[in-house]
Amino acid sequence: MILELIIAIVIVRYLQKSMETKINFPTWNIVLTYIMYAAIILLVSYAVFHDARPVIKWLGHLLLIYLIYILYTQQIFQQAKPVLLAIAPFIILYVLNDIMQLTDEKQYSALKSLISTGVGFSIVWMIVMWFITNKQRKALEKEKIKTQEEAEQKTIMASMKDELEVQVAQRTAELTKQKEELQHTLEELKATQSQLIQSEKMASLGELTAGIAHEIQNPLNFVNNFSDVNAELIEELKAERIKPKDERDEQLETEILNDIKSNEEKINHHGKRADAIVKGMLQHSRKSTGQKEPTDINALCDEYLRLSYHGLRAKDKSFNATLKTDFDESISKINVIPQDIGRVLLNLFNNAFYAVAEKKKLFAKDLPGFKNPEGLSAYEPTVSVSTKKMAGKLQICVKDNGSGIPQNLIDKIFQPFFTTKPTGEGTGLGLSLSYDIIKAHGGELKVETEEGEFTEFIILLPQGME
Length: 466
Prior knowledge:
67% of the residues lie in helices and 9% in strands. It is an alpha+beta fold.
């Protein structure tokens, strides 16, 4: 009898806790509470009033049967069906035991041991089913919590998506316009650069190129710098938008958007300034056809080596370097776009001269690790170019004895906008454009380097003879 009442109390507490009846089903929570109190009263009475135990026992049976009836007939307690399955064998055997004891004492005595064994097995069954049901309940609760979190996340993401789509649409329209303007400027700049390389003499073209680079460098640096800042601000805005609504700082979002707008006005201003410089360049050049033509690669390499050197000398009269050439005279003319290959060579030579000039400055400062036993004069800036015919391909090597490229940056140097130069001294487009030009010619552009010693760029072009 005591175990029966304890089971009733445990079932009531299990339902109240697992179904949160106090919040979700307040009426049934009151009913279950009354049943629990009644079970406690009967339990106490059974322990105190020994003479009334038969009556209390049957009241306990009726209370438990009523509880089972509620669980079986009410739709809201469907999840308690496994609990009924767990306690049903025990209740049936327990009630059967009391009925037989009351109605047929002789038959009860004969079956008493069998019923006791059945009650023992039913208790084991009840315990096993209880653990299984409890485990399933916890799993369902976890799944429910996970589903709720996913639903909340989807709602938040949908709201953010709608807001961002509006902003993206507005920004896309503005950026498309700016892209068209910048694309037009870039196309004019490419055409102008090719025309200048082909039309001017070596020395005068070097001075003009240095002047143009100096004039156009400032607005391009402003555009690049403010673009980088905008990219960081957009990432910061995205991070703020992802936060829950109650944690977001709307004032910070407004400040970021204002900063982005201010930066774009500056980008537009300096972009127009660069456009004006390009238009000035157009007045001094002719338009290129961009067609492949038979080209003497040896002469082209020699021309652009001198062009790059004199361009740097035009900006820094104190700079000097040793130029070395090793041309394979057996190479015939090959079909290339000379202006494009010239641009690649000019970029590689400019990078080489920049590397040796920077290393020379480090030696001149007498910094630790840059002074060797023979003294400062032992370092002689050297840039070399060589050509060689090999297995159906033409190889061009541009080598300098500068500080080399760190190994962790080798895989990045051909990426657009990546540069190892300080801010304001490089756009990060030179090697990327050079790589694309060589690929468009069906060739390869590779690099070999040793940090602190040298850098060598290797161009492989197919020998399509004219």
